[in-house]
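FAQ

Q: What does a record look like?
A: Structure on top, sequence underneath. For example:
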């Protein structure tokens, strides 16, 4: 156990005095820290004080001390962004004035728009649609020619500008399919029949026990007003074509049943509220060029 001695002794082996503490016969030496170590320690204290004076360091209520030189990485980033915007403005001055059709037809403007559009797509769209625009379940594939609201330059631009189901945006894309099961409009057996009929429209196999006659009748009563009698869809309403076997959420029976039962309500930001007009134009050109543009 530890003991405390009132007097300090000098250790016979090292010649160093003890601290007066002893543990099971082991006495603690009062060995001073090396001078080189203390020198470095004091130097770091002096350095820190100098750093506080020269650079922004101490937080305040609404900001921080600016320091003698006023340097901050945020200021440097702001300068770099300003230079980038100036450089882009010089390169893409023609994009702001040209129409989408003119940009598409002009090789020089098209090249600039593609470069800017690709960068904007990677920063803002790839997280959902994928780097190559192939999409995934719930996120449209931009490489095919299957569009809910149309794939022309103007239609794509409108979709990008105002988004999908954006609250407070009167021009946003909106489509609303009833939740036939959740709202009690159709019974489970009826939903199953409609799901099988949708697969029938797409040329896909149906269940052997499916009541296709019931499915056709229910489809005509509840779905044809938007999707059309033949299920070809309506881009004005954002109603998908059900005959091409392409579905945003899947064409298997389980996915179709889920869609009919609870409906879907995907959203996309209104990029016109986040990006400048020239960038939205460039993004339109790029998306249109991915392979599905009409």
């Amino acid at each position: 156990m530890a003991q405390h001695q009132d007097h300090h002794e000098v250790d016979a082996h090292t010649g160093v005095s003890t601290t007066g503490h002893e543990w099971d016969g082991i006495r603690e030496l009062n060995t001073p820290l090396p001078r080189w170590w203390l020198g470095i320690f004091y130097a770091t204290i002096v350095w820190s004080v100098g750093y506080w004076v020269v650079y922004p360091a101490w937080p305040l209520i609404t900001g921080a001390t600016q320091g003698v030189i006023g340097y901050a990485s945020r200021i440097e980033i702001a300068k770099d962004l300003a230079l980038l915007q100036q450089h882009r403005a010089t390169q893409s001055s023609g994009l702001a004035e040209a129409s989408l059709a003119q940009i598409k037809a002009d090789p020089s403007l098209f090249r600039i728009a593609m470069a800017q559009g690709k960068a904007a797509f990677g920063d803002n769209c790839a997280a959902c649609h994928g780097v190559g625009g192939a999409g995934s379940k719930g996120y449209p594939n931009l490489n095919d020619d299957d569009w809910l609201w149309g794939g022309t330059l103007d239609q794509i631009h409108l979709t990008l500008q105002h988004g999908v189901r954006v609250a407070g945006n009167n021009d946003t894309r909106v489509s609303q399919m009833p939740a036939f099961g959740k709202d009690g409009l159709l019974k489970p057996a009826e939903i199953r029949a409609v799901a099988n009929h949708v697969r029938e429209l797409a040329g896909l196999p149906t269940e052997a026990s499916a009541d296709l006659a019931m499915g056709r009748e229910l489809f005509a009563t509840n779905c044809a007003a938007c999707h059309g009698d033949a299920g070809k869809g309506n881009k004005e309403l954002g109603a998908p074509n059900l005959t091409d076997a392409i579905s945003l959420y899947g064409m298997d029976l389980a996915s179709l049943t889920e869609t009919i039962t609870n409906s879907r309500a995907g959203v996309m930001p209104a990029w016109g509220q986040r990006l400048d007009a020239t960038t939205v134009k460039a993004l339109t050109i790029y998306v249109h060029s991915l392979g599905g543009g009409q």
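Q: Is there anything notable about this one?
A: The chain has a mean pLDDT of 90.
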